[in-house]
């Protein structure tokens, strides 16, 4: 019975919509969604541009972006901590230990994923439709917009992959956010803290929500990929 009590307490936290619990979940979703949107705004056009462009050193850029996909989050967190600290070049903005700093860190982690997957997807389409698009007089900008639209379902799956990466991230947001209660405490950092404190109910409750979000994201990604296959067919 004792073993079951943390699970029951976790379910109680979820079902009664505990304000502190909802605050952590809400901040996590707000930070992650904002970071993914920011990464999409930058990464989608950059990835498409890289797909249709040919220039010296392109292979090196592609290899570098692919390598950044596996960049350790703690390294990203440390980098932005140094940049945003009072002695750093961006310290005057006062962003350290704020949700804005966490958004920047998460967007930096998601950005290489978005660029790399967009580049691969658009490059495949460009190989198939390049001659046609050029024959009807499309310029590079128009071609990029057309290819992005045609690949929208595959790119949605890429964004969901980025969202999944950001949702499960701990190191970077812990370093730049500080895990401050009511200010920068997110699900992953709260789970780590509450587990170390022995508050298993809150940790389990947040873990259940996090797993649920992960399952939902994967279901959406699968659904979008199926829609994309039907659309292509």
Q: Could you tell me the number of beta strands?
A: 0
Second rung of CATH, namely the architecture: Orthogonal Bundle
Provide the low-confidence segments as ranges: none
Categorize the overall geometry: globular
Tally of separate helices: 10
CATH superfamily: MetI-like
Question: Main sheet, how many strands, which sense, barrel?
Answer: none
Gap between N and C termini: 54 Å
Please render the helix and strand layout as text:
Blueprint: H1 5-15, H2 19-52, H3 58-68, H4 73-84, H5 99-135, H6 140-150, H7 152-167, H8 171-177, H9 187-197, H10 200-232
Describe the structure.
Helix content is 79%, strand content 0%. With 233 residues, the chain is an all-alpha fold. It has a single domain, classed as MetI-like (MetI-like fold). The protein is globular and about 65 Å long.
State the gist of this model:
The protein is mostly helical and 233 residues long. It has helices at residues 5-15, 19-52, 58-68, 73-84, 99-135, 140-150, 152-167, 171-177, 187-197, 200-232.
What labels describe this entry?
single chain, mainly alpha, 10 helices
